[in-house]
Design goal:
Length: 129
């Protein structure tokens, strides 16, 4: 992502990197909509926004699409949890485990037997000092 970059605090202090160009997650008290910016930084941000260079605080079409049902069509880490058939309580009862254990299984966690088997299979590769 070109809009995210590591920022050296010395470059901000010297003015080499304007504060409005710093990703909000790296600004003290930063807000995604730029509402944390004050004074000249706010004026520069508004000017850049009018020129289309700075999009903070404005929803893009992709944001609107995602909010209006697009989130159900997006592949994400969490979509695999939603694809399970039935609810957690039903699957836990069917598998004769607690709901907590079922959630761990859904997330792909190994049980103690699987972990021991995995550990045993790697023992041959272990270096001795």
């Amino acid at each position: 992502a070109t809009h995210l970059f590591a920022v050296d605090p010395r470059k901000i202090k010297s003015g080499e990197v304007p504060i409005e160009e710093v990703p909000y997650m790296q600004r003290s008290g930063g807000a995604w909509d730029g509402s944390d910016l004050k004074g000249n930084a706010k004026r520069r941000a508004v000017k850049k926004q009018e020129q289309g260079m700075y999009t903070a605080g404005k929803w893009q079409q992709s944001d609107k699409d995602y909010e209006n049902g697009g989130k159900d069509k997006v592949m994400s880490f969490f979509s695999s949890f939603n694809s399970q058939k039935g609810d957690v309580k039903e699957r836990a009862a069917k598998n004769k485990v607690s709901e907590d254990t079922q959630l761990w299984r859904d997330a792909g966690a190994l049980n103690s037997k699987q972990a021991a088997k995995l550990k045993a299979s790697k023992l041959g590769e272990e270096k001795k000092f």
